[in-house]
């Protein structure tokens, strides 16, 4: 404010050399140049000085507010980092569960090949009666376990509606198709033991064949959708985990710095 006043005095004093302004000062009672201008524009000058003072005061007030808010900002940052520490194990568990579900879905392909072999043999004819029953029985057991595991993992980690529908339906199809495979094994076992005639066996084979084929196709389609959904959400969770790791690392750096200070 003092600097502004000094500059005003220097400028106004020089402007009083004008003869008309000297006459005006004489009529005003012979006041000096600076007093003349001050009386004439005292409101404007006072306003300028007030603005300058307010700007300076505002600068110091802002700085003081920033200093006062620093502990609050630090506390908020610390809270966010501590939240990341708490949430990280949960996200890692979800990620691990998704990987396990993807592994289960990948196992389906081997069992689908066995189902396709059954369906193809049914088309050929009597060769189906020479198929190895333990091969089908074991495949059905594995397929049922896969379906139950997918159902459990889907319920544990729900995703979007469409994704969950594909996941849960895949689990259901695996379990249902495994039952058809066991039904097929039981039918062949009855035929080999002489409990049913070949015509009866062929009739039941014609009933089972399209059901197994449709089930195999639906498993393939829905398992593909489920895998896509898991891969997409797995990538999203991986990004969240990376972000939380960075926040935790920042917390460790800040703690080390504070101890050093």
Question: Can you walk through the features of this model?
Answer:
The protein is an all-alpha fold. Helix content is 89%, strand content 0%. The chain is built from 7 helices and no strands. The chain has helices at 2-15, 19-27, 33-40, 42-124, 133-156, 161-192, 198-260. Helix 4 runs antiparallel to helix 5 (133-156), helix 5 packs antiparallel against helix 6 (161-192) and helix 6 packs antiparallel against helix 7. 18% of the residues are buried.
Name its key features.
0% strand, mainly alpha, 7 helices, 261 residues
Short description:
The chain is an all-alpha fold and about 260 residues long. About 90% of the residues lie in helices and about 0% in strands.
Number of strands: 0
Radius of gyration: 43 Å
Shape: rod-shaped
Low-pLDDT segments, ≥5 res: none
Given the helix and strand composition, which structural class is it?
A: mainly alpha
Major sheet characteristics? none
N-C termini distance: 39 Å
Query: What is the share of helical residues?
Result: over 70%
* Average pLDDT score: 78
Q: Order of SSEs, N→C?
A: HHHHHHH
With helices defined by DSSP (H or I, 4 residues minimum), what is the helix count? 7
Percent of residues in beta strands?
under 5%
Topology readout:
Blueprint: H1 2-15, H2 19-27, H3 33-40, H4 42-124, H5 133-156, H6 161-192, H7 198-260
Helix pairs in contact: 4-5, 4-7, 5-6, 6-7
């Amino acid at each position: 404010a003092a600097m502004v006043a000094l500059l005003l005095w220097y400028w106004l004093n020089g402007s009083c050399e004008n003869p008309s302004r000297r006459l005006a000062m004489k009529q005003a009672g012979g006041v000096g140049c600076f007093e003349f201008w001050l009386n004439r524009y005292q409101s404007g000058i006072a306003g300028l000085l007030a603005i300058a003072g307010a700007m300076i005061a505002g600068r110091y007030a802002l700085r003081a507010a920033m200093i006062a808010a620093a502990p609050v900002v630090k506390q908020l940052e610390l809270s966010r980092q501590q939240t990341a520490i708490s949430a990280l194990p949960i996200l890692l568990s979800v990620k691990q569960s998704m990987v396990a579900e993807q592994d289960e879905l990948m196992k389906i392909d081997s069992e689908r090949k066995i189902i396709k072999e059954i369906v193809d043999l049914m088309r050929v004819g009597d060769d189906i009666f020479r198929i190895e029953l333990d091969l089908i029985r074991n495949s059905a057991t594995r397929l049922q376990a896969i379906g139950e595991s997918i159902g459990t993992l889907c319920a544990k980690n729900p995703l979007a509606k469409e994704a969950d529908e594909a996941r849960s339906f895949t689990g259901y199809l695996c379990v249902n198709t495994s039952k058809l495979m066991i039904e097929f094994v039981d039918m062949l076992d009855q035929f080999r033991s002489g409990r049913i005639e070949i015509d009866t066996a062929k009739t039941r084979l014609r009933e089972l064949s399209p059901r197994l084929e449709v089930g195999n196709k639906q498993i393939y389609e829905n398992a593909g959708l489920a895998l896509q959904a898991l891969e997409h959400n797995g990538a999203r969770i991986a990004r969240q985990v990376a972000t939380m790791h960075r926040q935790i690392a920042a917390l460790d750096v800040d703690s080390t710095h504070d101890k050093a200070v």
